[in-house]
Specification:
single chain; mainly alpha; 11 helices; disordered C terminus
C-alpha cells in the first residue's frame, strides 16, 4: 500500500488478490473456516470482487451452508453475469438448502412427536413368507404388533370355524358312518363339506391370507426406500 494517505485502488486489488490466494490455499488444506475468514477480509476491502463472492459461496457450500452459499453465488452473478458456471453453483446450493430444510423439518417433527426415526430395513420377501406361514406374522416382523395380533386372532378364529363346519358336515353325512365303521373314507364328502357351510369362512380365510401377505411385503418395502421421511 502507499506510504502516505489512503490506499490506492491498485493497493486494494493487490491486497484482495493476496487474501484470495491465501484463502484458496487454506481451502486446499481443508482449513475452510480460516479460508472463509480471509475471504471476508477480501470482501470488506472490495465488495465488488466477483471472484471473492464466488469463493465465499464455494466455501459455504463445502460447509453445508447452502442458503448462505446461494446468496454469495447470486451476488457473484450480479457482478459477473457472463460467468455461466455460477448458475450451476446456485442450483447446487439450492439443492443443499432444500435437503437441509427437510432434515431440520424432520428433526422438528420428531421432537414434536409428529414423526418417528426410520427403523431398520425389512425384507419384503421375508415378511411375505412369514405371512404365508400364518397371517399376522409378517406384521409382527414389521413391528406392527396390534395389526399382527388382530390378523393372527382372525386367522385362528376363521380356521376354527372351518374345522367346526367340516366336523359338523362330516358328523351329519355318510362319511361319519364310514369313520365309525372303519371303512375307507370318501374324500369327495370332505370336498362337499368345504363347499357347504364352511365356504364363507374359507373365503374369508383366503382373503385374510392374501391381504396379510401383500400388506407385509408393502410395509417392509417402504423401509427399503432411502427417502422415507418417517412422518406420521
Amino acid at each position: 500500500m502507499s506510504d502516505i494517505g489512503e490506499p490506492t485502488r491498485v493497493d486494494i486489488l493487490t491486497k484482495v488478490r493476496e487474501l484470495l490466494g491465501r484463502a484458496t490455499l487454506a481451502r486446499a488444506r481443508n482449513q475452510r473456516e480460516q479460508a472463509l475468514k480471509l475471504v471476508h477480509e477480501a470482501i470488506a476491502l472490495d465488495d465488488t470482487n466477483a471472484e471473492a463472492h464466488e469463493l465465499k459461496g464455494d466455501l459455504l457450500l463445502d460447509l453445508k451452508r447452502g442458503e448462505e452459499a446461494m446468496a454469495s453465488f447470486r451476488r457473484a452473478m450480479e457482478l459477473r453475469p457472463d460467468r455461466r458456471v455460477l448458475e450451476d453453483k446456485v442450483a447446487r446450493a439450492a439443492l443443499q438448502r432444500a435437503a437441509r430444510r427437510q432434515t431440520l423439518d424432520l428433526s422438528q417433527a420428531i421432537l414434536e412427536g409428529r414423526a418417528k426415526p426410520a427403523g431398520p430395513k425389512k425384507s419384503p420377501a421375508y415378511a411375505a413368507l412369514l405371512s404365508l406361514v400364518a397371517p399376522g406374522l409378517g406384521q409382527f416382523y414389521n413391528g406392527e404388533m396390534l395389526k399382527g395380533l388382530a390378523m393372527l386372532i382372525g386367522y385362528v378364529f376363521l380356521s376354527a370355524l372351518v374345522v367346526l363346519a367340516i366336523l359338523r358336515e362330516v358328523a351329519s353325512s355318510p362319511i361319519g358312518a364310514q369313520v365309525m365303521e372303519g371303512r375307507p373314507v370318501d374324500t369327495g364328502a370332505i370336498t362337499s363339506a368345504l363347499s357347504g357351510s364352511a365356504l364363507p369362512a374359507v373365503i374369508l380365510l383366503v382373503v385374510l391370507y392374501a391381504y396379510s401377505v401383500a400388506d407385509a411385503a408393502i410395509r417392509a418395502s417402504r423401509t427399503m426406500t432411502s427417502d422415507e421421511s418417517g412422518l406420521v
